[in-house]
Amino acid sequence: MRAHQSEVVHPEHQMAVRTRGQGRVAPRSSRCSLILRGSQGAVMDVRTIREVEPEIEHGGTVPVWWLVSPRELKDATDGGYLELVSEFEVAGGGMVDPHSHPTHEFYYVTSGRGIMVIGDEEAEVSQGDLIHIPPGEVHSLRPVTSHAPIHCFCFAVGLKDAGPVDYS
User: Fold this and answer.
1) Kind and range of the H or E element at 74?
2) pLDDT digits (tens, 9 = 90+) for 8-47
3) Interior CA angle at 158 toward 97 and 107, to 5°?
4) 3-class SS at 24?
5) The dihedral sign for the CA sequence 6, 2, 104, 128
6) How far apart are CA 15 and CA 18, in angstroms?
7) Which of residues 119 and 26 earns the better pLDDT score?
């Protein structure tokens, strides 16, 4: 997943690429398995356990849904470091202020539904979705309604030689 390239996704990892158009978010059925990268193309990368078959791992004892295959992001994160791990909740009617930072950031939706915005793209996300936010991309998240929150697990990989990030 390098900047400024297109790639066909391994069949086990279905992705959604949806571009905002006149305020509408494309339905889940429009998901495709092509992802474009870079500021001139799509940056939205949403993967869901609902579209991945589990593989039996750890001596046949555990089903694993690979949302990111081992070493899949090695080139993109080479020289990086684990910047943060957190959980957060956006209250119904609230939103995460649009912001950017020099990290590969990942949100995993643990409950609720929301609208993820990355660059000029929007996608509806829900429990079981993993969202990759590329470094430097302006992003935000809001619940789909004013009555119910969205809850996410978050982690980020900092870029080599990036300075400290102010998350306040």
Assistant:
1) helix 74-77
2) 333 333 333 333 333 434 333 333 333 334 444 557 899 9
3) 50
4) strand
5) positive
6) 10
7) 119
Q: What are residue 133's DSSP bridge partners?
A: 105
Rounded-to-10 torsion of CA 26, 52, 119, 106 = 140
Average pLDDT of every residue of the chain:
80
pTM of the prediction? 0.75
Length of the chain: 168
Residue reference for tokens 């409950």? 111
Whether 150 contacts 90, CB under 8 Å? yes
Give all domains of the chain, ordered by start, each with its CATH number. 6-158 (2.60.120.10)
- Residue 132: name the closest of 165, 89, 103 by CA: 103
**Pairwise CA distance, residues 101 & 62, whole Å:** 35
What is the rounded CA–CA span in Å between residue 42 and residue 119? Answer: 8
The one-letter amino acid at 77: T
Distance CA 19, CA 46 (A): 12
Closest residue by Cα to residue 140 from 103, 110, 94, 96: 96
